[in-house]
Amino acid sequence: MPQPNIQNMLKQAQEVMAAQQEAQDALKEQKVESSAGGGMVKVVVSGDLKLESLTIDPDAVDPEDVEMLQDLVLAATNEALRQAVELQEKAMQAASGPGGFDPMQALEGLGLGDALGGLGGGGAAGGLPAGGGGAPGMNRAARRAAAKKNR
Hints:
By secondary structure, this protein is mostly helical.
């Protein structure tokens, strides 16, 4: 089996990280706008999920029906945030390149799939290997206490 080239993998990871940072910086400049109530409430959110502006048409303000105004603000804000998150996802996918970079796959390619102590599951509590006998999921102190109790 050919040995993976760790230098190439590290270089690829660094390129992906740099592209993602550039994408995040570009997202700060991008804006999405949403409105509710036929344009009576308008919200602008940046690509990094900051509320940039909230505009309320004076005709939307009815002291007798504050709940309607609240609903319009929530609807416009939630839609703008949804659009901004979608913008982020597309930017990060584009920055990762075709197929993306999967760090776990890279570790497995190096024969280090379990190098992180089974953080993907299957180990003891906290993602650490159970090891050393005793019940799975018990740490060393718990195993000692159980052993002392069984004596």
